[in-house]
Amino acid sequence: MTFAISLFLMIAMATSLIALPSANAQAMAEKKTFSYIGATPNPIGIGQETLLHLGITDVHPSGSGYGFENLHVIVTKPDNTTLTLGPFKTDSTGGTGTVYVPEAVGTYYLQTQFPEQIIHVSAFDFFTMTMIDEERKYLASSSDKLALVVTAEPIEFYPNHPLPTEYWTRPVDSQLREWYTLAGSWLTSPENLYVPYNDGPESAHILWTKPLTTGGMAGGDLGLVGSGPTSVGMETGDAYEGKWSGSSGGSGWMSSAIIVAGKLYYQHTNNWPTPVVYHCVDLHTGEELWAKTFLDNQTIDFGQLFYFEGFNYQGTFAYLWVTTGGGGFFGPAAPEVWYAFDAFTGDWMYTMTDIPSGTNLYGPDGEIYRYNVNLQAGTLSLWNSTKVVMAGLTGSSAGSWGSNAHGLTLNATRGIEWTKPIQAQGLQGSVSKTYFNDRIIGGVLNNTNVNLWGISTKLGEEGKLLFSNTWAAPAYWSEGGVTVSGFGGGWMGWSQEDKVGVLWIKETREHYAFSLETGQYMWGPTEPQYYLDSLDDTGSDARAFAYGRFYSASVSGIVYCYNATTGERLWTYEVDDPYTEILWANNWWQKPVFITDGKIYTGHTEHSANQPLPRGTPFNCIDAITGELIWKADGMFRQTRWGGRAIIGDSVIATMDTYDQRVYAVGKGPSAITVAASPEVSVHGSSVLVKGMMTDISPGTEEYALTARFPDGVPAVSDNSMSDWMLYVYKQFSRPTDTVGVPVTIDVLDANGNYRNIGTTTSDADGFFSFDWQPDIEGRYTVIATFAGSESYYASHAKTAFVVDPAPQATPEPTQAPASLADQYLLPATGGIIAAVAAVGIAIIALMLRKK
Known about the structure:
Number of helices: 7
CATH architecture of the largest domain: 7 Propeller
Strand content: 35-45%
CATH class of the largest domain: Mainly Beta
Oligomer: single chain
CATH topology of the largest domain: Methylamine Dehydrogenase, Chain H
Distance between the termini: 157 Å
């Protein structure tokens, strides 16, 4: 206690001493400043970037959001010429930065110049516990000169990390920055079904499966009707009872499951009031992390990855959003309320009430914006979800996100960034499309005219009228019988990149396009699509844009590709039904599910399929540029119209299948190889047999259903064999007879230290491979068997060893003793006499026989 009292008295005396000059000052307070300049890196190579750090050692007295102004950096080059950089404004800490690229070798001298400036100070002084309200003069200063050394040779920066060549999972270390190209999320139904930041799978390889609900064939007496025995299946979830889906979420008729930072979130049913249980599953491994029901049986509407950058804290926050209210489709709109949940744990974080109407738009940092156009009042407003939390916060309280947001219920009207007048009167119709910091498109569409107007949302041009244009429709529109706007017709796609909006005339199966730059007609009508496409009543989800192309796929089972800016038909792909399983067409009804990595993926849906379900439903991966088929899987992943369809994140496809009601993850998986050499000790001149197994070790192969059928592991097979092989492995179809394994390279490190290839072989349908070879030198060998990987598997390798001993020496012939005299002379002579007698005897006998 004594120490505390003493410390308090010391602080009080120090405070009075500090405060005294300010209290007695009559003239404007002056503050000496100290400028600085730094360069990182230094030295630097010619043509490389160096980051200059400049400013003064004082913080700005007014706090966050303020800074000192008009700073300059004087650069004296090696040839003594000078260059002035700036002006610069500091942040509230008194510092800022800029990038400089030197153009010549030598030593540069850099100096910061801070000009005198008068700052009005209005702040609370914690030392004197009083308010300060004064003019303060910050005196000019110059920093010491900094020598920046520029060399002819570039300096080394942190090396790039290559993209993964092995099976990978989350979390991805933040230092592996280059991997962002493979690690996209699916936060909501994507604009035009285009999903960047994925390596689109090029085979039907399955990573894992999980049961969604009871599925597959019912069995027994059920469905034993018709000309031959069959059986109906379990309920599929179509026809108003979709599974694997969320609610509309403001982005479409029915949004799918979502993927946030490598985690998959899906529900097993949307059949209220049955508890809507959400499952959080690791997308790479299939491990279920948690399952729960949100609030009073609510659905997840969308996800968010929000990057916050404050002066105390920077980082990305992952949320799941549950929304209530809004709508108004069946009655007056209720106040919209948003609930944020932690994507990792599923725990509630904070709530926003009274969300203004509009369409959700993600900003560059993942913040959620909404524009509100009020044509009657002639106003345009912007709402920012981030501002709801940060409004009114200053100083240290504005430096972090989590402590400000979490655990609160906030009124969303705090998030109105601005309201501006629309610089045009009398605009008719309604908003059709909204783009952040670009434009809003609206107008009137009917059987006589296409009216389009555009309003700017760009910073500094908010509310500016960009265009208002009316196009007189063809006569046959007004003659009746065609649906220009309404059920199944009208605007079907918008592309900000191509600056085009496309509408659909249902009965004539034609497309027309209009410019988002001018509102004027661009192209159309296109050549009519097949007549069955007129039967689709949800046409907008049958269209997509990417790569300067417009895609359409619907009831006809034909995928059409058009040039987005000219309307030229570039190619078509027919998803044919060779076994006449579809009774009303020659093709399978198709819908595009997503586009990524230069590929468009399509699947089959129906409004209300009959039982038993048609067999062999295809899932297709098509080259989005050429229209060539990359792969397809018949009978593997039957999609759903009323539930969610296939989605993709982290380069892994996640989908349900209505044949067996399971969730599937499709993507490149890990492989394993074993190798052995026989015999392990050989002799020079003999052969050695190299053999091993090539297996698929994806998470799904560890399920008992597979380990019981494949006790030696699931064989790895070629990409071309994959679709039929996966049907056999995971769906118990008949084992295909034409399965081809994968190539295996055999290398050796010989006794002389030479690494060399000795051949290549291919594994068979059981995963077994072998290779025989006759070593050419003696000594110890290391054998390396390598699978280089494929579109289905990542690479793997294994090692073994054997020894080649010298060949044994040949046994010499024994040395014979010299022959004796008897052996040399008597025995040969005796033998000769005997031979002569025998010859005479034979001659006599022959003569006697002749006489007879």
